[in-house]
Amino acid sequence: MKIARDKILVVDDDQGIRDQLMWALNDSYEVLSAGDGARAMEIIREQEPQVVALDISLSPIGQDEEGFEVLRKTMELDSKSKVIMITGNETKHLALKAIQMGAYDYFTKPIDLPEIKVIINRAIYIRKLERENELLTEKLQEERKFHGIIGNCPQMLNVFDIVDRVATTNATVLIYGESGTGKEVMARAIHRQSLRKNKPFTPINCGAIPENLLESELFGYEKGAFTGAVGRRKGKFELADGGTLFLDEIAELTLALQVKILRFLQEREIERVGGREPIELDVRIIAATNKNLQEEMEKNTFREDLYYRLSVVSISLPPLRDRGEDIVLLANSFLSHFNKEYGKNLKRYSTEALLQLQTYKWPGNVRELENRVKRAVIMARGNLVVPEDLDLQLLEKGGRLTLRQAKKKLERNFIREALIRNRGNISRAARELAISRATLYDLLEKHQIDKEDMK
């Protein structure tokens, strides 16, 4: 079987340079070549070479803009790309500028073949180490799943801890969270971890069923209870016997139905609509809402006694915009899922796409992120997800989010997450971020971050 070799792309408008490098490197690598920027970008997108040797001045008249443009686009596709600049002694200052833009290294003409082989070998070795780290990160992402739920931010870890402690009891649970934060997913996780896991999990959305039908949906009815009741029918409570009943959007219940729910929680029995005989049931109640029930009680639209019965244990799910690195963890998980569903092979998000994912407000929370990634997988043309595939509108109070604002937000998020992971330890966080302690202190002051809060 033929062993795949590492790919090197040589980009230079001088055919002699290209031939010289191809001859010198061909024994060890698969060498590709391009004489201009457009062809170079085609090869980079299609072949994904491990290293790109790029001439700063691609055009015959010595203009360097095209070389910098290829570098910029390559780094946008993958910020870990190993681009080695080819330069003359008279343009060495441009090579230093290129390194500031993200280039890995440079070498000068006339070419010293032993030197460039050392530089390329080192670049490939580092890229392989980075890839191994990426695979390890992916493995850790799988380990961070909690009953199918992905989360590593402090808020979600706290939620998981509460679920671990409450799941094996019969206590009622009240889950708070904005629409799309995963309230039903969390309710299912509690059920799967409970002693009732082999019994039914029965969900019902109290806000999705007309008021005049909701009572019979919940409690069932007897034959002849109303026009059209041609036979006896069990409701959600009876269907959930022995298991868990999930009452989503509990705040939408009328006061009359709240009384019937309260009676069940007190007596553990119900009556069907049109029935006279009480029916004893063993059902655990988990309720959820996106409303503030304290405010609903003040408005007399939610019963105080029911609130205290439901909220034996309360769980508050954070909005996606406050979950930091979880956004990327979730986005990668959705990318893998939809790749399989649609038979695609998108490898990752471009640097700019990641920037958008981390700076967007996500008003629709996890559900919106899932739908955006699904759209991106369907619409993407190449091997990467780019901003156009996500179709996000990055808006601030005054209009579209600027690149400066987006970078500032991303930098602040990275610093906060590093401090949280290292429990506020400045030295360890600085090492992780590959900056000095003094620089980190400057950044804490710049972004008004209190390291004590990160512990």
For the structure shown, list the relevant keywords.
Rossmann fold, about 450 residues, alpha/beta, 3 domains, 18 strands
Number of helices: 19
CATH class of the largest domain: Alpha Beta
Main β-sheet, spatial strand arrangement: 2-1-3-4-5
Residue windows where pLDDT falls under 50 for at least 5 positions: 395-399
CATH fold assignment of the largest domain: Rossmann fold
Q: Nearest-angstrom radius of gyration?
A: 29 Å
Give the end-to-end Cα distance, rounded to a whole number of Å. Answer: 53 Å
Name given to the CATH architecture of the largest domain:
3-Layer(aba) Sandwich
The structural domain count equals 3
Shape call: elongated
Largest sheet: 5 strands, parallel
CATH superfamily of the largest domain: P-loop containing nucleotide triphosphate hydrolases
Number of strands: 18
Q: Helix content range of the residues, please? A: 40-55%
Mean pLDDT: 85
What portion of the residues fall into strands of 2 or more residues? 5-15%
Pairing-aware structural class of the strands and helices?
alpha/beta
